[in-house]
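hiii so um. not sure if this is the right channel but i have a protein structure encoded as tokens and i wanna go backwards to a sequence. like what aa goes where. can anyone help
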């Protein structure tokens, strides 16, 4: 039996892990955990429920991040021992186990390495994702609902809390639009590369002639603002409409006018929320989303001014950033990174990590070039 030699691969993993540790700042992370633990131990912490949840959530996320770093360090040591034992005992089962552990660590470190690239101002924030049906009629509405499910499944698979804030159903099938809040650290930085125009090509289930149909949907991703962010929205600048929450086909969800629609008059931005039963809660949630979009609009305006002064006004996104092809062949391809897979079903079921990682690396190269 040939001797198993993974020394080169393990050395590469240790090098990558060292780079990650320097960026993460493990000692700084430990200090944050100590500080947050002290805050969480204050007797009257839960007198302010919102602040208490923020502190305990931050503590939980920091502890999980540190635990992951410690675990990887231990697993790298264990992998070297596994290889040594496999060779000493010429154990094929141990060899297979060591090779599987190597692949697992390569995947995990690859994900952590990508996260270290998320160093933008708003990257650590939770995200608000809005999906809108575009050209393509009923197929576009159906496609928008497929994308909504895709992002909800992605969030579920990663243990991220997701809330559908608002859904506008189409008359025949699918949705006109939907807004989802994904409450997890770095959700915005991670999902921001999903923003753009998505295209679906398939044999339309809504076409009696069975013809191939192309449809489009737009995805918008904005960071969720915090109460410390200053985004002033004067009452005179908004119009608030209340209406009855509804589901598919117009079926009433409740019998009170609890849903809220806020229109920002200067920009025309419209935000709706009907997830909560209380009109007050829906208004508060809608205002947070409106402020998030205004915050992003301000940022984009500042960036546009900088580009204009530099004389480099170029579109950073094309008309479509990703194609989902179901007929005549099966493929999902990102047109910016050329990353592609041949299993659309898995992608629509939330398997987006490859696309997201490629997108984050692509964006980093664009910034550096």
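sure thing!! here u go:
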């Amino acid at each position: 039996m040939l001797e198993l030699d993974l020394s080169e691969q393990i050395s590469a993993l240790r090098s990558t892990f060292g780079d990650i540790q320097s960026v993460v700042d493990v000692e700084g992370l430990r200090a944050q955990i100590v500080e947050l633990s002290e805050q969480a131990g204050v007797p009257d912490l839960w007198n302010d429920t919102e602040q208490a949840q923020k502190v305990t959530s931050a503590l939980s996320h920091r502890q999980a991040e540190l635990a992951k770093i410690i675990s990887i360090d231990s697993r790298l040591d264990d992998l070297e021992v596994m290889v040594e034992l496999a060779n000493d005992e010429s154990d094929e089962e141990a060899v297979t186990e060591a090779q599987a552990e190597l692949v697992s660590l390569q995947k995990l470190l690859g994900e952590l390495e990508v996260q270290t690239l998320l160093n933008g101002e708003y990257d650590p924030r939770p995200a608000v994702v809005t999906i809108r049906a575009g050209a393509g009629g009923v197929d576009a509405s159906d496609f928008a609902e497929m994308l909504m499910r895709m992002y909800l499944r992605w969030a579920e698979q990663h243990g991220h809390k997701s809330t559908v804030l608002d859904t506008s159903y189409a008359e025949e099938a699918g949705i006109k639009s939907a807004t989802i809040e994904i409450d997890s650290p770095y959700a915005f930085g991670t999902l921001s590369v999903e923003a753009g125009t998505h295209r679906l090509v398939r044999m339309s289930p809504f076409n009696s002639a069975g013809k191939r149909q192309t449809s489009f949907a737009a995805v918008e991703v904005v960071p969720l603002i915090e109460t410390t962010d200053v985004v002033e929205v004067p009452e005179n600048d908004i119009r608030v409409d209340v209406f009855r929450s509804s589901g598919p086909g117009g079926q009433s969800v409740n019998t009170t006018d609890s849903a809220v629609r806020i229109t920002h008059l200067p920009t025309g931005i419209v935000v709706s929320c009907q997830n909560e039963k209380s009109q007050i809660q829906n208004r508060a949630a809608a205002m947070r989303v409106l402020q998030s979009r205004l915050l992003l609009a301000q940022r984009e305006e500042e960036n546009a001014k900088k580009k204009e002064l530099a004389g480099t006004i170029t579109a950073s996104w094309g008309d479509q950033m990703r194609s989902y092809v179901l007929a005549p062949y099966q493929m999902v391809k990102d047109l910016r990174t050329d990353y592609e897979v041949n299993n659309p079903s898995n992608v629509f079921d939330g398997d987006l990590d490859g696309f997201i990682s490629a997108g984050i690396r692509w964006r980093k190269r664009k910034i550096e070039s």
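oh and Residues 127-227+313-368 form a domain with the Alpha-Beta Plaits fold (CATH 3.30.70.1660).
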